Amino acid sequence: MNYQFFTRKQKGTPQNQPIPGREAEMIQGRSGGWMFDAGLWKLLRRCLLIGTAQSTYYAQKRELTDDFIDVLKQAVDTDPGRVASEIVYASNGRSINNSAPLLGLVLLSMGKTPEAKEAFRAIFPEVVRTGSHFYEWLSYTKSLRGFGKIIQDVGTQWLSREDVKGLAYQLLKYQQRYGFSNRDALRLFHVKPPTDEHQQLFNWVVKGWNNYLPDEIPSEALTQIWWYEWLKHHPEQTHKAIKKGHLTHEMAAPVGKMDKKAWQLLFNEMPIGAMLRNLGSLTELGVLRADEPENIDRVENVLNDVNRLKKGRIHPIDVLKALKTYQSGGTLGRSKKNWQPVPRLVEILDKAVELSFDIAQPTGKVFLHALDISGSMSWGVVDSVGLSCCEIATAMALVTAKAEKNYTIRGFSTKFINLGISRKDSFQSALKKSSDRNFGGTDASVAYDWAIKNQV
């Protein structure tokens, strides 16, 4: 019996211990393992892009969001201008939705310095683009800080914007969300109408036209509102109101008599995001049928157009989610309807998935993309998107492959192997390469070991 076990130089440090001499650079994760601290700004970007509204294996969403708030507060105190840039970066079609950037916006408004207030004011219209965004921002603001002067200023500016027609569209389409109505918003901010058209719009919001419908449309800006109110009095003429007023399904469906023809008229002008979300419903209603190719052609012209995908801020995960949901016939996703998928629509969605990868702008940097291929990656699906972790991770790896010139994509479990995924792969071929290897434990350190040994 001797002490060679103690004096012999160790080849590596166990994951449950920090590396001797580098303790100050490392933190302990929730699983008990030690890792290098990513730093404030990388953590902020991760939280803004991915969000913390879903629980993970090791932490509940409340705990994750508490950490997100702490990161935001520290970042705002350090450099509010940089926080503003990160919020806009995430909100511009990069985050999974706009909720995390909106939460970040509220925390930025709570900064104690004039620089933080000015940064908040400057980016507000870039982040709060729709009525839904506006109500969600109001909800977070009410819960976290209250409605002080700067909130009054930006809220008033948003509700008195020069584009009255665009404002009317938002206030009609999104009449109520997150516990706030358009009437609540106007009363909260005491907005003084800058023009006669604003005055007419605000009168409709506060008082409505339930007992009085003007004989003529008051102005071009209020055209949709007039037809919406006209439809309330003439629900049997839903088709006319949709066609003349260019009403969306959010406007027509609650007050009109919705039949196949009504949905056909809505489909004719449906924007790309709404089309992706409603393919199943449109199939169930008979608007999308294999024996009526004209409508299928329109879906193809919209979803297989790279420029429309880009303009609509459509993320590859959005298209992949739509494909999986539609293929399932209603068994996946939140829809309560069932439908028989049209094969050609599945093909169109499959192509849209591939095209969506071409939207990402290259950075010109060199990437080592380490993809988790451990066994748990193929267990079940993420409820919010209807996709497995393996599908989501593969999609994001393929974004790298399609956008960048200098990259390597490898997979880690307890080993680190070359997956052979390249820009030539389709999503399905890339998924096969990653899912065929879904086994073993999870050891992310093997990726770093490989990078160090190969001087990457």
TrEMBL record:
The lineage of its organism: Bacteria, Bacillati, Cyanobacteriota, Cyanophyceae, Oscillatoriophycideae. The keyword Cytoplasm applies. Transmembrane segments: none annotated. Keywords: Cytoplasm, Metal-binding, Ribonucleoprotein, RNA-binding. This is TROVE. Belongs to the Ro 60 kDa family. Its main location: cytoplasm. InterPro entries: TROVE2, TROVE_dom, TROVE_dom_sf, vWA_Ro60, vWFA_dom_sf. It comes from the Bacteria. Residues 27-365 form the TROVE domain. One of its GO terms (molecular function) is metal ion binding. The keyword Cytoplasm applies. It is found in: Cytoplasm. GO terms for cellular component: cytoplasm; ribonucleoprotein complex.
